[in-house]
Design goal:
Radius of gyration: 18 Å
EC number: 6.3.4.15
InterPro entries: aa-tRNA-synth_II/BPL/LPL, Biotin_CoA_COase_ligase, BPL_LPL_catalytic
CATH architecture of the largest domain: 2-Layer Sandwich
CATH topology of the largest domain: BirA Bifunctional Protein, domain 2
Shape: globular
Order of helices and strands: EHEEHEEEEHHHEEEEE
Distance between the termini: 42 Å
Pfam family, one: BPL_LplA_LipB
Strand order of the largest sheet: 1-2-3-7-6-5-4
Organism: Parabacteroides merdae
Number of helices: 5
Protein name: Biotin--[acetyl-CoA-carboxylase] ligase
Length: 251
């Protein structure tokens, strides 16, 4: 991972606007070792894909960001970072509960409820990635959600138990870096196959909404670029980038 065998830096904060922002600011001042981590007890402006906000009670959940230098990955395969992060959260949660899936592109669901969101920010150098900041908000011990988010849930709400957040984080990091080493070994198809098998609504026809309205389709494929291919009952296939289509989730 680190070509200079540098020890990753772990930064713990009581509060920050966003762990992604903080990590990017620190790495802009001086290059941090790969695998460096920022963990916060509270975020005042936690965010998800395309500016979505993230509600989290102070000291109850896991909010952290990891710094990577995946310069071996071409820019058009950057979605692999999202895939390994999603799979790592899913497999971590499966140590404690079942019915965990990945809702394209990288929300983590327990049944029809969202337990984790993430924001992955990639910087490019030419045709390859230079660095990636993987930001994750995972609901662990929160008992009540007060925002207007439609379907949040925490591990505590699922099981009725309280968890040591450090134990959950350590489990995630072990799984995540195992997947990262698979990337280094160019085992991309293994990762893509695991991601397809993990998808929310991965089998069967479900309702989706795009700019033209509601329609019924099944997931046909996920392209290496991350684009979603949906197939309608009449065989028509439609291709979507992030935020161009919404999965209809039961309320």
């Amino acid at each position: 991972m680190n070509d200079k065998n540098e020890t990753p830096k772990i930064i713990r904060l009581a509060e920050t606007d966003s762990t992604n922002n903080y990590l990017r600011e620190q790495s802009a001042k001086a290059r941090l070792p790969e695998g460096s981590l920022v963990i916060a007890d509270f975020q005042t402006a936690g965010k998800g894909q395309v500016g979505n906000s993230w509600e989290s009670e102070a000291g109850k959940n896991l909010m952290f960001s990891i710094l990577l230098y995946p310069d071996f990955l071409p820019a058009n395969r950057q979605f692999l970072i999202s895939q390994i992060a999603s799979l790592s959260v899913k497999e971590t949660l499966e140590k404690y509960t079942d019915s965990v899936t990945v809702k394209w592109p990288n929300d983590i669901y327990w049944k029809d409820r969202k337990i984790c969101g993430m924001l992955i920010e990639n910087d490019l150098s030419g045709q390859h990635l230079y660095c990636s900041v993987v930001g994750i908000g995972l609901n662990i011990n929160q008992e009540i959600f007060r925002s207007d988010a439609p379907n949040p849930i925490s591990l505590t709400q699922i099981t009725g138990k309280t968890y040591d957040r450090e134990d959950v984080l350590a489990c995630f990091l072990r799984i995540f870096f195992n997947y990262y080493f698979l990337l280094l070994q160019e085992k991309e198809e293994e990762i893509r196959a695991a991601y397809m098998a993990a998808l929310y609504h991965g089998d069967g026809y479900y309702f989706y909404i795009d700019e033209n309205g509601s329609f019924e389709a099944r997931i046909h494929a996920i392209e290496p670029t991350g684009h979603l291919i949906l197939q309608l009952r009449d065989g028509e296939r439609r291709r979507y980038a992030f935020k161009e289509v919404t999965t209809v989730v039961p309320r």
